[in-house]
Amino acid sequence: MGDDIDEVRARLNSIVSQLGAAIDFRQGLVGFGSALQHFNIAHHGEAHIHSAFTGDINIFASALDELVITGAFEPGFQAVVVGMSEPMGCRPGAGVCAILSTDERAHINADAPETKADALAALNTRNAVFLGIVNPHEPAVNNDYGPNPGSLSAATGGQVINIGDFRVNP
User: Fold this and answer.
1) Which of 84, 99, 79, 77 is closest to 8 using CA atoms?
2) Is 13 a residue whose pLDDT tops 80?
3) CA distances from residue 132 to 35, 36, 39, 144, 157 in whole angstroms, order as listed
4) Are residues 49 and 27 in contact, defined by beta-carbon separation less than 8 angstroms?
5) What distance in Å separates the CA atoms of residue 115 and residue 82, rounded to the nearest whole number?
6) What whole-number distance in Å separates Cα of residue 76 and Cα of residue 115?
7) Separation of alpha carbons 109 and 72, rounded Å
8) 3-state SS track over the chain
9) Distance (Å, rounded) from C-alpha 18 to C-alpha 150?
């Protein structure tokens, strides 16, 4: 992700700015993969809220700037569950699009036991569509996030975008 994070950050800031000018929407940010010294997490790689849902694009931009690259454990399913959780502050009845950006498969261990079924249940609770910005060259990524049948994007009517194609200046 190290070579992609700045591009993803710039593209997300652009999307948020354009949406903010056109519609009433909220965005939130969950990080994962951080080392223990970041954000007081209890376990290596633990998913954590950077910003609950907000309509303030400056708060979201600041949260994006807090993201760090550690090359750590990436519990993508746990991040989806956290992103759909009550502490995020989702508006009742709001349309939800969960966007996950990663270059690895979803890691699961004793500290991040959330499975694909858990992530899908969380998405279904919010009637959310899943969009993955991922590395499609790793087969496990396609099974976890999409486009393979049973992936989060396939199960929610979403899609995946090759992280290499998600550059502002290709």
Assistant:
1) 99
2) no
3) 23, 26, 24, 10, 12
4) no
5) 13
6) 9
7) 13
8) CCCCHHHHHHHHHHHHHHHHHHCCCCEEEEECCCCCCCCCCCCCCCCEEEEEEECCHHHHHHHHHHCCCCCCCCCHHHHHHHHCCHHHCCCCCCCCEEEEECCCCCCCECCECCCHHHHHHHHHHCCCEEEEEECCCCHHHHHHCCCCCCCHHHHHCCEEEEHHHCCCCC
9) 32
Q: Which phi and psi (to 5°) does residue 77 adopt?
A: -65, -40
Residue 92 in tokens: 């009742």
How does pLDDT run across 109-149, given as a tens digit for each residue?
A: 888 899 999 999 999 999 999 999 888 888 899 999 999 99
Q: Which pTM was predicted?
A: 0.87
Closest CA to 62 of 36, 28, 96: 28
76-83 helix and 116-125 helix, angle to the nearest 10 degrees? 20
Binned at pLDDT 50, 70 and 90, residue 72 comes out as low
Rounded CA-CA distance 84/96 in Å is: 9
